[in-house]
Design goal:
Blueprint: E1 3-4, E2 26-31, E3 34-39, H1 44-50, E4 76-77, E5 95-98, H2 102-116, H3 133-140, E6 167-169, H4 179-188, E7 193-196, E8 203-206, H5 222-226, E9 232-234, H6 235-240, E10 245-250, E11 259-265, E12 268-274, H7 287-291, E13 306-307, E14 316-317, H8 320-338, E15 343-347, H9 353-367, E16 372-374, H10 375-390, E17 408-412, H11 416-419, H12 421-432, E18 436-440, E19 457-459, H13 466-479, H14 485-491, H15 494-504, H16 511-518, H17 522-534, E20 538-542, H18 544-547, H19 552-566, E21 576-578, H20 585-590, E22 597-598, E23 602-603, H21 607-617, H22 629-637, E24 643-647, H23 651-654, H24 658-666, E25 670-675, E26 687-690, E27 699-702, E28 707-711, H25 723-733, H26 743-753, H27 762-768, E29 770-772, E30 816-821, E31 846-849, H28 851-857, E32 864-869, E33 873-880, E34 888-892, H29 900-903, E35 920-926, H30 932-963
Parallel strand pairs: 1-3, 2-5, 15-16, 15-24, 17-18, 17-20, 18-19, 20-21, 24-25, 25-26, 30-34, 31-33
Antiparallel strand pairs: 2-3, 4-5, 6-9, 7-8, 10-11, 11-12, 13-14, 13-26, 22-23, 27-28, 28-29, 30-35, 31-34, 32-33, 32-35
């Protein structure tokens, strides 16, 4: 009987030696007497592994192309001479393979003997002992003695490289299998490692004989994971020893949503290993998810509830019960004095779906208003508005895997290799395979430096001119008749299309008319439009450089117009794909964090939808939209908004116009902050409730491709409660009953009220691994690709996208335009990553500027620069490079003392109030001291840290007295 391979039986903890074949043609063969059928193109090594037959290997791994260098996997094939490597030999129909013969055993032992002859025999003290492939293979082939001593030439005295803060490179252990080099090239796409020298002198080198830290290595960990010995090994394993068990969970950094095995020793995390079964990352990772988990047990963690009556008083440690009762009393008193609308809350894009859902439920059902908002509005609310208007659903259309089928990739206002690095690696791999690249960005992003990339088009537009550019691209497509009329006739609203066609063909939208606005030559725009429109599959990926503008919603609609006009919707390799910034930005939107929408994007004024919630929640809900975050700030300063509950957000650092934000926070009578650290917002708080990290909780995150992934608890919550439990306690203290025993019960309630989640349950997530919504009766297993047949609104809707220049313009007083973004090693406001060794790469925010702008002002590298805008003034050091275009400067915002948002204005998107972070007119001058705000920040920071320590010291003193 022939055993037919079933893909569903794949064991993701097993290494099958070579990648899976995607062929649908099946071939039958016999391996050691076992008949098996596998897809054409499968290697003999993989076929044997699928049949449960293990062939020794050292250079092979199933995430790398076959290499055939170690010769350990040799086999004998009936009718063929010699001993071919099974990793590089594809199966053939009726092939008969022998993997275990005396001659093979002798050959393998001889090969292994050569490896061991140049390898330290220190297995008992080696950190990889018990998890070493070389050790395992030596045992498997029966090697018992080595005839060659260490008297001859060897590499045993090679010096270790300990420059990287997360792993050690010990060349004395290296067998030069090249797996690390190939992982860096094939999986990560960085090409940072190479094999230097020939023959016996061959060795692995990082760059030009430099250290790992000095090289182009991005510390993704692919090389460490690929290494079959302890040549490359995590420092945590060296320090703590081998882990004893593991739990699969989901990373809490960016919107890629990578799956990891948290490998544990007791309740301590030894290492995070990317999980091959993770459908978003498929066994890959970045420096943050792979290594930067130490913040979870950092000494700065807030582990006790604390209260105070005034922000100038020391904190006082209290029990959970006292903290919750204090908070509830303050909230009730505020509403009694100032009215029902005087309080509100902010949900988090770092917390789980279940936690976010409960916070907005608390506000609506217990507070009795719709004053709920989230940082998701601060970054991606134009995505929701723009895509809902044009396509009928406010989310991306594809899986990340879809990019493997793209022929042309248009990246607008996004920097995937820094902000979404695992997807960036996937994208780079497709570019190396020949896909065309178009980048619309004021900066030269790293994607443009992808190895082996040819003919990439860079459109370095001026900040604030996105809509002008997208209209010019669409104008070219329509004028040159590059549109897909068949798709438009079948799938799009005819009246809307004709109105749009008339508008977009107006001369004012032509590349020639718009080149003076965008700064991009007309011919470059036309070339890009032709490349995208003529590609078999054209995909668009965009980020905050699209949404964080005064015309953010207009630009998202313009992007959707492009996809509709060219028919690039509804199949693999195409689509409109927003790259969500934080791990659960998509989820926080889905869960109803906005003041005008209930979970599932159901408007609060919809009587039928609201009625469903009222029935389940047992309370009458307000039908009027509540306050957005900017409205809360304005109302606080006006004395009308007096109390706020903030879970897992740092609005004092992340929101624009810091002076305005700080004034608003100081105006509150009660600020309740629930977080893992004393962040910038918590310094203005009256109640500080310990938060829990992703390692300390159960729940789900939803990534940028609508993929719902399980978050599993791997260690006890240091503060004693998971975040959802705190919200439940607060609701009950306010007199609104909440009774959940586990987050799965919260998800069941979400499913009952949210149409796109109606088929989602923890049981189904365990069975399928993950689910992409909508998941309901129509799509019981989820929806990887959206809009294959139709749109939720019926026909695709072309929207008029009139270009209106931002009010924030360069002038003689402010001649430069500042734009902001992120960097690979840091995450968002940096509260997590700044408490890890990622500081080795980026320990301060700097201002990037073009050499011509620097020369004009007499600025040299690392000079201190005063940066002044219409909103404020701060000081950063200069970083001069040609990634910027003249007239544009750039900075990151990961360090609070940098004051990046002191200078950003409160301009915002016309439809959603999403702040215009990406366009701020500034002037530069050389200075010799920090800004006034920075001096005040340092003083306030020191004072608040001192008040925190006083509270801790007082508690410790009381504890000692009690013991006495």
């Amino acid at each position: 009987m022939v055993e037919i391979f079933d893909p569903k039986t794949i064991d993701f903890d097993k290494d099958y030696g070579t990648p899976a074949s995607q062929s649908s043609t099946m071939l039958s063969l016999n391996i050691d007497g076992t008949d098996i059928a596998v897809p054409e193109g499968t290697s003999v090594l993989r076929a044997a592994a699928l049949a449960g037959i293990n062939i020794p290997k050292l250079c092979a791994s199933d995430n790398l192309e076959a290499f055939g260098s170690c010769r350990m996997c040799t086999v004998q094939i009936e009718g063929r001479r010699g001993y071919p490597a099974s990793c590089t030999t594809p199966v053939a129909e009726n092939m008969r393979v022998s993997t275990q013969t005396e001659s093979l055993a002798k050959l393998r032992r001889n090969i292994m003997e050569l490896y061991i002859s140049d390898h330290p025999l220190d297995c008992l003290t080696c950190p990889a002992n018990g998890d070493c492939e070389l050790q395992d293979v030596a045992g498997a082939v029966g090697l018992r003695e080595v005839r060659y001593g260490f008297e001859g030439e060897n590499h045993l005295q090679a010096e270790k490289d300990t420059s990287n803060p997360y792993f050690t490179y010990d060349p004395s252990k290296c067998i030069v299998c090249s797996r690390c080099v190939r992982a860096c090239e094939e999986v990560q796409g960085t090409f940072a490692l190479t094999v230097e020298g020939r023959g016996f002198d061959s060795k692995i080198a990082a760059g030009q004989n430099g250290s790992f830290l000095e090289s182009d290595c991005v510390s993704c960990g692919a090389c460490v994971q690929a290494c079959p010995t302890s040549t490359l090994i995590e420092n945590t394993v060296v320090d703590m020893g081998q882990p004893e068990h593991s739990v699969v969970t989901t990373c809490a950094y960016c919107g890629v949503g990578c799956s990891f095995k948290a490998e544990m020793k007791g309740d301590k995390v030894v290492r995070m290993v990317p999980y091959k079964g993770g459908q978003a990352n498929q066994g890959h990772s970045c420096v943050k998810g792979r290594f930067a988990f130490g913040y979870a047990t950092h000494k700065d963690r807030i582990v006790d509830p604390m209260i105070r009556d005034d922000i100038h008083q020391p904190w006082r440690k209290v029990s959970w019960q006292e903290a919750i009762e204090f908070s509830a009393k303050k909230l009730r008193a505020t509403q009694e004095k100032y009215g029902k609308q005087s309080i509100g809350g902010i949900t988090s894009s770092r917390c789980t779906n279940e936690e976010t859902y409960l916070v907005q439920k608390l506000i609506r059902a217990a507070f009795g208003n719709n004053n709920t908002d989230t940082c998701a509005r601060v970054c991606h609310s134009p995505t929701g508005y723009g895509l809902k208007t044009t396509l009928g659903e406010s989310a991306g259309t594809q899986t990340f895997d879809s990019v493997k089928h793209s022929d042309c990739i248009l990246v607008i206002g996004a920097n995937p290799t820094d902000a979404h690095p695992v997807f960036g690696s996937m994208l780079r791999k497709r570019l190396r395979e020949g896909a065309k690249l178009i980048v619309a960005d004021p900066r030269k992003i790293d994607l443009l430096n992808t190895p082996h990339l040819t003919n990439a088009i860079h459109l370095p537009l001026r900040p604030g001119t996105n809509v002008a550019l997208v209209n010019a691209l669409a104008h070219t497509i329509m004028q040159e008749k590059l549109h897909d009329q068949t798709f438009i006739d079948e799938r799009c609203d005819d009246i809307a299309f004709k109105k749009w066609q008339t508008f977009i063909l107006e001369e004012k939208n032509s590349p020639e008319a718009m080149q003076s606005v965008t700064g991009v030559p007309a011919e470059d725009i036309r070339r890009a439009a032709r490349e995208y429109a003529k590609a078999g599959n054209g995909a668009i990926y965009y980020g905050l450089g699209v949404t964080e503008h005064s015309q953010g919603s207009t630009m998202v609609m313009g992007i959707a117009n492009l996809a509709l006009a060219t028919g690039n919707i509804g199949r693999e390799g195409v689509g409109v794909n927003p790259l969500r910034g934080q791990n659960n930005v998509q989820g926080s939107c889905d869960m109803g964090s906005f003041p005008h929408e209930l979970p599932g994007y159901q408007h609060v004024s919809d009587d039928i939808a609201r009625g469903h919630f009222e029935k389940v929640w047992g309370v009458e809900l307000d039908h009027e939209p509540g306050l957005r975050i900017p409205n809360m700030f304005d109302a606080a300063i006006a004395g009308k908004f007096k109390a706020m509950y903030v879970q897992g957000e740092d609005i004092a650092q992340s929101d624009p116009n810091t002076h305005h934000v700080e004034k608003a926070l100081k105006s509150l009578d009660c600020l309740i902050v629930q977080d893992i650290f004393l962040n910038e917002t918590a310094k203005f708080a009256h109640v500080l409730l310990p938060g829990s990290t992703f390692l300390e909780k159960n729940g789900t995150f939803t990534n940028a491709e609508r993929r719902i992934n399980r978050v599993r608890k791997v260690m006890p919550a240091l503060g004693g409660k998971e975040d959802w439990e705190v919200t439940v306690d607060l609701a009950n203290a306010l007199g609104y009953p909440m009774n959940y025993q586990h987050p799965s019960e919260i998800m069941d309630e979400i499913a009952s009220l949210t149409p796109s989640f109606s088929g989602v349950s923890y049981q189904k997530l365990e069975e399928q691994g993950s689910i992409q919504w909508p998941c309901n009766e129509q799509y019981p297993d989820g929806t990887p690709t959206m809009h294959e047949v139709d749109f939720p609104i019926g026909k695709g809707n072309f929207a008029i996208t009139q270009y209106l220049a931002t009010e924030e313009k360069a002038s003689r007083r402010f001649p430069l335009l500042l734009t902001t973004g992120r960097i690979l090693s840091q995450y968002n406001v940096g509260a997590q990553t700044r408490r890890t060794d990622n500081q080795a790469w980026h320990d301060e925010d700097k201002l990037e500027l073009h050499p011509s702008d620097a020369e004009l002002r007499g600025i040299k590298q690392d000079d201190w620069l005063g940066i002044t805008s219409r909103a404020g003034h701060t000081v950063l050091r200069a970083c001069i490079n040609d990634r910027m275009q003249p007239g544009v400067v750039y900075t990151t915002f990961h360090h609070p003392h940098s004051g990046a948002n002191v200078i950003t204005t409160d301009n915002s998107d016309w439809a959603t109030n999403c702040p215009e972070y990406k366009v701020t007119a500034v002037q530069l001058e050389k200075v010799s001291q920090p800004s006034v705000w920075q001096k005040e920040f340092v003083d306030f920071h020191k004072k608040q840290i001192n008040l925190l320590e006083q509270g801790i010291d007082n508690d410790n003193s009381q504890h000692k007295d009690a013991v006495k």
